[in-house]
User: Fold these one by one.
Assistant:
Number 1:
Amino acid sequence: MRKIFTISMMLLFGAVAFTSCKKDVHVLDTNVAAVSKLNLPADQASFSLDPKSSSGIVFQWDASSTQDLVLYEIAFDKPTGDFSNPIYKVLSDGSGVQTQATISQKLLNTIASMGGIASSSSGTLKWTVIVSKVANKQVSKSSRIIQLNRPAGFAVLPASLYLTGTATEAGADITKAIAMKKINDGVFELYTSLQPGTYTLVDKNSGTPTTYSLQNGTSVQLNGSTTVTNKGVYRISVDLTTASATLTQIVSVGFWSAPLGKVTLTLPYIGNSQWETTTTISIPQQSYGLDSRYKYQFTVADASGKQSLEWYGSKNSDNPDPNNTTLPSYFYVYPVNNSQFDYCFKLLPATNNKNSSINVNFSPALANYNNTVTIK
């Protein structure tokens, strides 16, 4: 009898529990109402984009009438598109919950490029708002046209840039392409020799890279190649944010003695962005003692052949004599002025009257360009 009672109670409690569970079931309402009104920017609004600006462009709209939490995205498409496959979507501010989106001019420049608007050109895109709840999405029936005026330069900037081709030190094998030094986003430079032939700039040294070429030594364009007719050592400077370039010939690199006020020897280019010579060093004797201060005088020529001087030395206006414990940063090379005694390095006293190697290294792999004087 007790066993039967126990089984009956268990069945009763099970039924109650099942009934309680059924009462707790809540069916999620996934219905979502589309955004009905767009507010900013005005239809046909025009913007001249400056990718370097910290000021964004604000897009605003009325909230969806849906009561529960929803997510908003701005969708961009070509003027003839229907947003079924938008070229780009951006979550609204607040990770998608606010009824506005602040979009940087840099990103809008990229979106414009994706929409087929070329650099240094104007074009239009269409935008609207997509509201979503769970998997349900509704595209607003309202849309607006925005006109974007793109500056010169490339919207998508490569993280790396390489030099390759028959005119280069590494030849046309792309896997051996020479990495350029990244100065800033989209800005690269390389000190290297060129010989008669052609070269291109590529964003990677394998696969199918994006290719760039220099035009007239002043601008950069997609695809193509650059022809070299004269052998020489050059500084190739590229700014992809403005699609500009400068090709500067390094005519000579001179070891400039401060106490003597002149170049006392010239360093030949040895390849791999380096100049080097071996010589017997004689530190000038002055009335106040030995004076080993030195820096480097670069003679350069622009595209027209006009020559000028550039000076490279220490970041410090005055330096002590180096010794065996001097940090490598002492010998980092920076652009300096042409003052006779300021921003000079000093030679290790032990190098006086010793056969020594003088090396100036502008390798792109270095965090800082440097110079060394080593007793042989």
Number 2:
Amino acid sequence: METEAVIASRWAELEIMDRSALRTAWAKAFGEAPPYFLSMIFMRKALIWEAQCRRFGRLAPDLRRALKAAADRRSVRGPAPAIRPGTQLVREWNGRRYQVDVSEDGYVMNDTRYKSLSDIALHITGTNWSGPRFFGLNKATGSGA
């Protein structure tokens, strides 16, 4: 059966379910009983969403984080810009200048290969940083010391 037809069929099933049947379907889909106060229409929408996720796949983790941030009224940042191989990143930290070369398979600093900019930022500062943030590749740039 065509995917859209499967989802439409599931929606038709949900539309005729009473509260008790919806609560049972919820427990089966989500592994626990729904909060008592949920409306029937909300339960139907959540159940059809769950069916769509099973059929089409879930939201990507970065999109889920962005939606959570927006729901919490926090700023939402886009992904870090793509950096082409051959690019050189320069950062001053505690009076010392660091230069990183972007390669096809990672980053090189002082003849040492790193998987990520965050690994390099950790090496330089001794603390966990967002690598793109540390190197000023997004709006929330790190402050130099």
Number 3:
Amino acid sequence: MEKLCSSCLTTQCFINKENNISNKKQCLKLNVVDWLSDIKSPFGDEYDLVEVQFKNDRKEFFHNQDKISLCKGDIVTVESKSIGYDIGIVTLTGELVKLQIRNKNISLSSLKRKKIYRKSTDIEINIWKSLKKKEHIYLSKSKEIAKNLNLSMKICDVEYQGDGEKAIFYYTSENRIDFRKLIKKLAISFHTRIEMKQIGYRQESAKIGGIGSCGRELCCSTWLKNFKSVTTNSARYQQLSINIEKLTGQCSKLKCCLNYELDAYLSAIKDFPDFESKIHTEKGVAKCMKIDVFKKQMWFSYIKNPNTWFRIGIKKIKEILEKNRKNQKSSPLEELSIIKIIQKTELTFQD
């Protein structure tokens, strides 16, 4: 019995049909839905750019100069960057390609319009499949060669061109690498042109994939196509403890999901008083220890007694700060607090 695909919950996806290309029962990474494919353009002319996906997260745009009838899932033979041809799978056609180009901030004038030659023939597809099967073998061999040359680099992926004329080796490294000897040995071992391409640690995780601490597949390897900088301020605004082990992902960088809800927190804390502000009461000066964004409450404690925290609504805090500006002290926190809680207890040990 055929297993359902983990992404589309069907048995009809490309990977399930072509099990000899990949052992994973899942859809292609960064899968998209071409929901405008059956709708004709109201202006009469069809958009001649097509989005084609290659291995993992590599996607490029090609010019359908010969007006070949294409739809999502078609295997096409396209122009490569150098000699020969490459083979990929059509992911988007028509008007949605315009939106994709706009989302990636690519200008049409700077876009190199490589051509789509044709729909791939059976011979070309068979060559492509056989090369795909060899990639994991060549990956392990290339790692051994790099290790023997004592190069401080990690080769994380190998991608063959559709005709086998070139192989791209993706690697990560913290320092600049002189890999001229490595290229010579790889060319001799694999009898093809070699291209070395350095990528970041986030891009490495996107290519390899994996399961995150949330129990789901990594966002970067399934749907996230643009990487934005993540700082510890994103965690601080969300009142998360700065525990690097919990905040970092498999790429050893801060998790991309720290930015997902950041805008909602930033808009919510605009109503809060300054966290550094201190309130003056009849019993003493108190400072803010933490906030509750959802309940719009703040926890205060006396500076002389930081172990006892008091929860107060932000409206009441604003009233207290207004009194303090007029040199008036407010009532003690015990009378203002919604609830009192002892956060810390001091333990004494006897010999």
